[in-house]
Structures are given as C-alpha cells and as structure tokens.
Design brief:
Strand content: 15-25%
Number of domains: 1
Structural class: alpha+beta
Largest sheet: 6 strands, antiparallel
Strand order of the largest sheet: 1-6-2-3-4-5
Oligomer: single chain
Number of strands: 6
Order of helices and strands: HHHHHEEEEEE
Radius of gyration: 15 Å
Distance between the termini: 22 Å
Helix content: 10-25%
Shape: globular
Length: 183
C-alpha cells in the first residue's frame, strides 16, 4: 500500500483536473470519481467536488472511507464531512490571512463570503486541492466546477472566497479510526 502524501494528492488532482472531464447523464468518464457513492446517491446529478478529492486522496494512498467516521455521519462526497472531520482532528486552518497553504492542502470555499476577516458562517460550498500561488490568488485542482453538470479544471481564485484549508498530515492513515467495513 502506498503511503499518503499531500504532494501525491496534488499531483493526481492536477493531472485529473487538466483532463476537463464533464459529468453527463447516462454515464461518463467523470463517474470514476463518483462511483463509490452510487449505492447512496445513485447515478443522477449531484455535487461531486468532494467525491473528486476523495478519489484523488485514495489514489494517493489515503484509505479514506465512504462515510465520515465521526459523529456527523456525512459521506465524503459532501464538503462538510471533510471540514467537520478535519476540525475534530486539528487539521483545519481558517483563512485568517496568516496561514500559508502548501501544495496538496485541501481548499474549502464559501461563495457567500465577502471578506476574509468575517466570522466563519459554516458555508462550505466547494473543495479543491491547492496547487500554487498565482500572485495573490490561489490555484487549485477542482472537480464539479462550472455549469452543465460540472467538470474537472484548474482554477485560480481570490482569497475572499476561501473559508479555510485542510492539511492532512503526510502518512496519515484512517485504519485506526474505522472498521474494515465502511458504514
């Protein structure tokens, strides 16, 4: 089994994002990111940005479960599952103007946020994988971005829409937290 690193996650997410895979009804190449969640959500249209990041994490060696193993019970196809899990473990860092994201950190977006210094309202709308700084903006690999069912892409976004970041430690392993069979 491969040991998870943020660098591997970022490399995989960047490669996949550059493919520009679109979700389309009736089956498509982007379904590979979503297929683990089909028994729960079906194959229809649903947001899949978090499912994309979960898929990239699994490919990078993180045995991340389908469902958040903590008290919230969300699936990892839902951005708040990542946020609540990360906050509980101390992996979440608010966009306070001080934290400097590194390649492979997960970026959490709040489309309603208008200032970086406003209180965290708990709007976790989207998730990407931080790749690099582009001037004062942040470049990320994202799934389910854009319209018409969404697609994978590299996006450059301003700090104002970023709620925070998740830094999963290199070598992190879920095995000590979950049973062998996902709930």
């Amino acid at each position: 089994m491969t040991t998870y690193t943020r660098s591997k996650h970022a490399d995989i997410a960047e490669r996949e994002a550059k493919l520009g895979l679109h979700w389309t009804p009736g089956g498509c190449l982007a379904d590979k990111y979503r297929q683990d969640f089909f028994p729960i959500f079906g194959k229809g249209k649903w947001s899949w940005c978090a499912a994309f990041q979960r898929w990239c994490a699994v490919q990078a060696g993180l045995n991340i479960p389908i469902k958040d193993p903590d008290k919230y019970g969300f699936t990892f196809a839902y951005v708040p599952a990542f946020v609540h899990w990360a906050k509980d473990l101390g992996f979440y860092h608010d966009n306070d103007g001080k934290f400097q994201p590194q390649r492979g950190d997960l970026t959490i977006y709040d489309w309603e946020q208008t200032r970086v210094d406003e209180p965290d309202l708990g709007h976790y709308d989207h998730i990407g994988c931080h790749l690099a700084m582009v001037g004062h903006s942040y470049q990320a690999a994202e799934g389910n971005t854009g319209g018409n069912g969404g697609y994978t892409a590299i996006k450059v976004r301003s700090a104002v829409c970023i709620q925070g970041w998740i830094r999963i430690p290199d070598g992190y392993d879920f095995n000590h937290l979950i049973s062998a069979e996902p709930a």
